[in-house]
Specification:
The complex is a heterodimer of chains A (564) and B (340). Chain A has 564 residues and is an alpha/beta fold. Chain A has helices at 124-133, 146-149, 174-197, 211-224, 243-251, 271-283, 312-319, 375-379, 386-394, 398-403, 414-418, 425-486, 491-523, 534-555, 560-563; strands spanning 27-28, 35-38, 48-49, 56-57, 62-65, 74-75, 80-89, 97-105, 158-165, 199-207, 229-234, 266-270, 289-296, 302-307, 327-330, 337-338, 352-356. Chain A contains 15 helices and 17 strands. In chain A, α3 (174-197) links the parallel β9 and β10 (199-207). The longest helix of chain A is centred in the C-terminal third of the chain and has 62 residues, at 425-486. Chain B is globular, with a radius of gyration of 21 Å. Chain B contains 15 helices and no strands. The longest helix of chain B has 24 residues, at 38-61. The N and C termini of chain B lie far apart (42 Å). With 340 residues, chain B is an all-alpha fold. The chains are: A alpha/beta (564), B mainly alpha (340). At the A-B interface, β16, α8, α11 and α12 of A face α1 of B.
């Protein structure tokens, strides 16, 4: 059957640079001297450490427990001794630290007792909990906990399960190699997911520059004989591997910003995630390693099966980094993030260590003014008008940037890539987003403070009134007593008695109104903070830290020099 | 600190402008062939004036000179001025027009990318209001040799009124108007018959129509190179043809044919090179259609009922004013928010 494919607007065709790293099979990496495993590796809560310095751990032993449902467990990647549990620099541009477990491998690489599950007998909820505790997260780069996505929508079933093997970023080939070498196991993972999601069809989208992977996956499908699973070659065009773009290409459905794809009967997983799910369900092995592409400024670009926590330079050394190397980029050249150091650990989000040099990734030519040529709008896969958003970002007119759908921007980099004026458009959009987030949080804080203040006023007012009422009642009682004595009451006393009753009604009205206002405020709570990837969250944290530091520095009346 | 993306397409403002200049070459070649090499002198004068004006303003504004002088945007403005001004305009007229365009309309508004009005068209409008006679003297094809042209450009006294006349657009309009009055010897003649003179060619003015064809070729190449999109040329030509066709079909004795309008004056230059200026023009797809169609109707109205030799310049400026609101009201729905 020939399935109709759909197009997404825009996109670009950068040189793919994928040939070199696919010439050799996926290699293993010798154990490093030290593994640094960050506890927070997925979207959601920070797992708490389950080990202490000095503990002996086994391979696959859980060292970080999921913090709530929106979180995912973390495991020891090899057996050894826990040397430390401390904040260490995480693989993010900000250079911020995060609580990490440092393990000194004992060299035996011994598995601990594995937590097995009977896939056929277990209920969907049990399976989801199991996957959460096995630390399975999206390996396409977003590291969203997979168990949360393995829930069909309201109807209890899905139309289409989309499997993402597009891998549109230049240089990266980890999914390509995984499909070539592990298609059968990956397919078993897909079957399991399909069962959990009650998905009617499974569509595996693979860019047509990966014919070997496509052939391997098709052969695996034919061998498995499970109906309703189809691998499709899609046109090679960045960012065809963006979840929304791939869903669009394969099903024609456009999932709007802030909506769940399951509302539209679709769910999307990366091929690597499918493989890890199989590994967890079938063998009981938690997610402790992943395939990582090492490419760029190295002599022998290649894919490696890397233990989570391995220092990046340990892996890059195997591929032979050239002497003019000036940076590592995690991810590809379009969306990757520059690493703050060479020895940051490989984490679950590390699909590629792109080794950079000034020659390979030269600084852009000088920025020119925007000439409104519209190239960016032609290239934008979200149908945005980047040059308009740029204009408003520059002017710090953030309301207008939102009117032009700033938050629909997926930061894919197409606009910056094509801009003839060499404007770093995506940087402007990141800046605007972070400013808006900061303002929303400040506003939230201010609202809370105001509410507290208003409530205090209200309470004081009430106390005053109650006091007055008590006094009035007392006075009335006294008057009554006096009236009882004199047998004639003055006309003002009656009014004084009824007045507090009227105040009660008024107060009830005021309270009702305030409650209503509170509810309304809760409804218009910031909406841009809901769907944030770990990168974004880390970025936000970094920005907050900087802002805090700046504030402290400026409010400090005694500068350090004066104290000396 | 450089953030992603770390790679970029080899594109620059300079290469965009260079391609626009190259696309003008076929039209210029036809111009030289039919009207003589004087236009080349005008192009040179305008280019030098534009670069000088730009350099002076960049110095005053403290902007990097090398970067902005080599972006070729000033040269594009200069060439459009030279190509829309009469080829025998005195040198100081070209220089003044170019300086007005570059210094006032472009640099005083903030330089490259910041001008709300098309600099070349603003210069044309200012000059035709200030020097209506000089801006209306057009030689017919093959009428003047190069030496005479040089004398007219650099010489002092101009006694050429006898040998140079109005543009074919102007001439036909005048003829049509006089044909409409009962006591004229032309009374009752139709446009096709009035065009039976030496100044007219197959569709438009003699020679001029071939220059227009050259612009058309260059413009199509720009579309193929994805420097411009089809929207503005198509909407402009379509709307001009429709408007002219409507009035011509109603009263053929009173109006010129739609093909004449397309082949004459600055229609092709306007459709492919002037209205497509991204800085001062509309940017959304629907906006471009509205913008160009509006410019076409205004052009026709000025041509048919106004007093100026051509209407492109005024029409462009009038539509430039509307660009912000056109762009704002024609934003396309974004991903996931389309109604289909």
């Amino acid at each position: 059957m020939l399935r109709k494919l759909f197009k997404f607007h825009g996109g670009v065709k950068p040189p793919t640079n994928k040939a070199h790293s696919t010439t050799a099979p996926i290699a293993s990496v010798p154990l490093p001297d030290r593994l640094v495993i960050p506890l927070h590796q997925s979207v959601g809560g920070h797992p708490r450490p389950l080990v202490q310095p000095g503990d002996q751990v086994f391979k696959g032993q859980r060292i970080g427990g999921a913090d709530g449902n929106l979180s995912s467990a973390v495991h020891a990647s090899t057996s050894g001794i826990v040397r430390d549990v401390l904040p260490a620099v995480m693989p993010h541009t900000s250079g911020l630290t995060t609580l990490s477990v440092v393990i000194e491998p004992d060299g035996e690489d011994r598995w601990g007792e594995l937590d097995r599950i009977n896939v056929r007998a277990a209920t969907p909820d049990e399976l989801r909990d199991y996957l959460r505790d096995a630390g399975v997260v999206g390996l396409g780069g977003a590291v969203f906990p997979s168990h949360l996505k393995l829930k069909p929508g309201k109807e209890g079933k899905l139309d289409t399960l989309v499997i993402n093997g597009a891998e549109c970023e230049p240089f990266i080939t980890c999914d390509d190699m995984l499909m070539r070498e592990r298609a059968t196991d990956m397919l078993k993972g897909i079957s399991a997911m399909r069962h959990m999601l009650q998905a009617r069809d499974v569509l595996i989208g693979i860019e047509d520059n990966k014919p070997e992977a496509l052939a391997a996956v098709r052969a695996a499908i034919a061998a498995a004989g499970e109906p309703g699973i189809e691998a499709l070659a899609i046109p090679t065009r960045y960012p065809a591997g963006g979840a929304k773009q791939l869903i669009r290409v394969l099903t024609g459905i456009e999932v709007p910003h802030g909506r769940r794809s399951t509302d539209f009967g679709v769910q999307c997983f990366n091929v690597g995630t499918a493989y890890s799910i199989h590994d967890a369900l079938e063998h009981g092995r938690p997610l402790i390693s992943r395939v990582v592409t090492v490419a760029g400024n190295v002599d022998a670009p290649r894919n490696y099966d890397v233990l989570i926590g391995t220092p990046m330079d340990h892996v890059v050394r195997l591929a032979g980094a050239r002497p003019d190397t000036d940076r590592y980029i995690m991810g590809g050249p379009m969306m990757g993030v520059r690493m703050p150091a060479f020895d940051v650990p490989v984490v679950k989000a590390t699909n590629c260590i792109l080794v950079g040099s000034p020659v390979l990734f030269p600084p852009p030519p000088p920025e020119m003014p925007c000439i409104r040529c519209g190239e960016c709008a032609k290239a934008c896969p979200a149908d945005l008008a980047p040059f308009e958003m740029y204009w408003f970002s520059r002017a710090r007119n953030f309301g207008k940037t939102q009117e032009y759908h700033l938050f629909d921007c997926i930061e894919c980099g197409c606009c910056s890539f094509v801009c003839p004026s060499h404007i770093p458009l995506v940087d402007y959009f990141r800046f605007s987003k972070s400013e808006i987030w900061a303002r929303e949080r400040e506003k939230e804080a201010a609202d809370t403070a105001r509410e507290r203040f208003e409530f205090k006023n209200l309470r004081q007012e009430r106390e005053k009134q109650e006091k007055a009422e008590k006094l009035a009642a007392k006075a009335a009682a006294t008057r009554e007593k006096v009236a009882g004595d004199t047998a004639t009451a003055p006309p003002g006393a009656a009014a004084a008695v009824t007045k507090p009753g009227g105040d009660d009604a008024k107060r009830a009205l005021i309270e009702a109104a305030m409650e209503k206002a509170r509810l309304q405020k809760a409804q218009v709570a910031p909406k841009n903070l809901d769907v944030t990837s770990p990168d974004v969250q880390a970025e936000m944290a970094a920005i907050d830290a900087r802002r805090h530091a700046a504030r402290e520095a400026s409010s400090d009346p005694h500068p350090p020099a004066g104290q000396a | 600190m450089i953030n992603s993306p770390y790679i970029r397409k080899p594109a620059s403002v300079q290469s965009v402008m260079l391609q626009v200049l190259l696309a003008l070459v076929p039209g210029i070649a036809a111009y030289v062939w039919f009207f003589g090499a004087g236009i080349l002198v005008q192009l040179a004068i305008a280019s030098v004036a534009a670069l000088a004006g730009e350099a002076a303003m960049l110095a005053i504004r403290g902007k990097p000179k090398a970067l902005f002088l080599t972006d070729l945007s000033a040269i594009v403005t200069a060439w459009l001025i030279a190509l829309t001004f009469p080829p025998i305009a005195p040198w100081w007229l070209t220089v003044t027009g170019t300086l007005l365009a570059v210094v006032i309309v472009k640099q005083l508004y903030g330089g490259l990318g910041q001008n709300p009005f098309n600099p070349a068209m603003a210069a044309f409008c200012l000059m035709i209001v200030a020097y209506p006679a000089l801006m209306s003297q057009w030689p017919a094809a093959g009428q003047l040799d190069f030496k005479t042209q040089i004398e007219l450009i650099f010489g002092g006294a101009r006694h050429v009124d006898a040998i140079t006349g109005a543009t074919p657009l102007d001439a036909l309009r005048t003829a049509l108007r006089s044909a409409a009055s009962p006591d004229s010897e032309l009374h009752g003649l139709r446009a096709a018959q009035l065009m039976d003179g030496p100044a007219f060619g197959l569709l438009g003015g003699k020679g001029g129509e071939w220059v227009a064809f050259g612009y058309l070729l260059g413009g199509l190449w720009l579309i193929q190179r994805r420097i411009i999109t089809w929207h503005i040329p198509a909407a402009f030509c379509g709307a001009l043809f429709a408007t002219a066709g409507l009035l011509w079909s109603l009263r053929p004795e009173g109006f010129a044919s739609p093909l004449f309008h397309l082949a004459s004056g600055g229609a092709m230059l306007g459709a492919f090179f002037i209205l497509t200026d991204p800085v001062s023009g509309a940017t959304t797809a629907r906006g471009k259609l509205l913008f160009a169609a509006g410019a076409a109707v205004l052009t026709y109205v000025i041509r048919a009922f106004g007093a100026y030799p051509d209407g492109i310049a005024f029409a462009t400026l009038l539509m430039n004013i509307l660009v912000p609101i056109i762009d704002m009201k024609t934003q396309a729905p974004v991903f996931g928010h389309k109604k289909d």
